[in-house]
Amino acid sequence: MRGGGEPTFDPVYKCSAPLLTQARVSAAIGKDSPAYLVRSSPDKFVASNLRQNLHADFSASGVAIRHDGLWIGISLRAYGYGDGLEPVSAATPEVRGNQENYRHRGLSEWYLNGPAGLEQGFTVDRSPGASMGHALTIALTLSGDLSASVDGSKHSLILSDATGHSQLRYGGLAAYDADGKELPAWLELQGKKLLLRVNDTGARYPLVIDPLIELAQLSAAKGQPGDEFGLSIAVCGRTIVVGASELNSSTIGAAYVFVEGVFGWANMTQTAKLTASDGKPGAVFGSSVACSAHTVVVGAPHQPVGVNQSQGEAYVFVEPPDGWGDTTETARLTSPDGAANDDFGYSVTMTGRMIAVGAPQASGQVGWQGKAYIFERPKGGWKSTSNATAVLTASNAQFDNGLGVSVSVSGNVLSGYTLAVGAAGINSVTGAVYVFVEPAGGWKTTSDFNAALTASDGQGGSALGYSVSISGNTIAAGAYGANAAYIFVEPPSGWANATETARLTAPPGVVGSYFGYSLSLRGGKLAVGSANDPSESSVFVFVKPAGGWKTTSKYNTRLTSADGYGFGFSVAVGGGVVAAGSIGANNLQGTAYVFGK
Hints:
This protein is mainly beta. The protein contains three helices and 50 strands. Helix content is about 5%, strand content about 45%.
């Protein structure tokens, strides 16, 4: 069961994120469609969701959900504090359109059927008494032919068949009070009893125990082990682009385009496969991707150019008038001063008419200082060229700075663009982020940056800037060696050398996880990948507090995956979703997931 209501069931459900807006959209569409109506049947009500291949029966004794010949029963039994629980009052299902409700004394359990799935939710009207330091607890009884286990995050319940294969996942637990404050919540399993625990200290009732949901799983139609599908990912509007740099173990690579359907994201294979017309084995085409409107750019940092091995190229693909289809590039971009092993295309970013490409191994005044290249779309459209509009370097470059290991651009043609460029190797691998603001007369080749952003607690090995993302006046930079992400907010006077506004760290117990290896910022939402978590790779979602970013290790949502290693290797926020690549799935074949708002 998936949807925007509380804990959710989903076929081979992986992980989830809050879906308040998406749930309302799904519920509204479901209300207007006969396909999602809850119907009366002898002694029960029934609902079908053909889109998700789910069927639910609602009776006075609880809910039974069927999927592919398997079923799970769930019944609300009691609630209270700790283990001192009181049985809930009896309730008869009440139905209105695509909605079903069980109204108990002090507590409501509700379901909404729509394109996003069958959404379940709990609303607790008031505190059930004195907590005495115990967690608010809702007790559910499980039945059926699936065995249950709680995952390492304690946010999801894995339901497996007799062979041990994961079939459903009751997952994505979160809770909010009347002020919208998220409350600590977790799952516990005691035999067939599932306990939803919430720390309601200081909370204002009513509380909503809210769902987290995976909207879709994206995969390559002919994927094979070793593809590393999900090594890179980008979101622009209703389009998601996923890179697979080791395609079919040939190391030529490809990028895959996915377009959201009329009713939202759903499990799918690609709309289009993008490849390089001159692709060579070892080019790792697809190791970086970016998109904007109807254009995609893909990096191939090890692509040979002439006799220069691993000089690298970036490929531009423009969507045809009749929509995306399998194609080779519209244009190829190369560096005007390229040399062997520059790794041009290691990172790419774009918005509107501008593309920036990082070459972290390019040499200049010192070896491997790194460079970033600006390309602007000509009036006649993108054409193959090595004539960059500008080449950006750092005046304080040091050996092996790695400038260009990450790039991110924000702005538009009217207000101008701001480019954030990571240099994870600066100062003995402490790292920094350089900010370049487009001059009034347009981009020019320069080594004069507007700001060098560093960590106040920076140490060798932290690799600040290995990942970077800019949104408006805010820059987020990952330092996976320090298990941290740093937030920098532009001062009213403009960008200048500074240390961080806030430091976000991996939660206690997440050690050696590469927290910050990937990240993506859009507006007030930041997703941080932690792809090397020894127990479970994760993506942590942080939402900007009302008072602004603050140093913390408290995240808003933790997304996890049954794939294990490699989930969160890439992340992207945009179009109202969080997308995450998981390269470790199916013996490094890889997959990607889309999570709701």
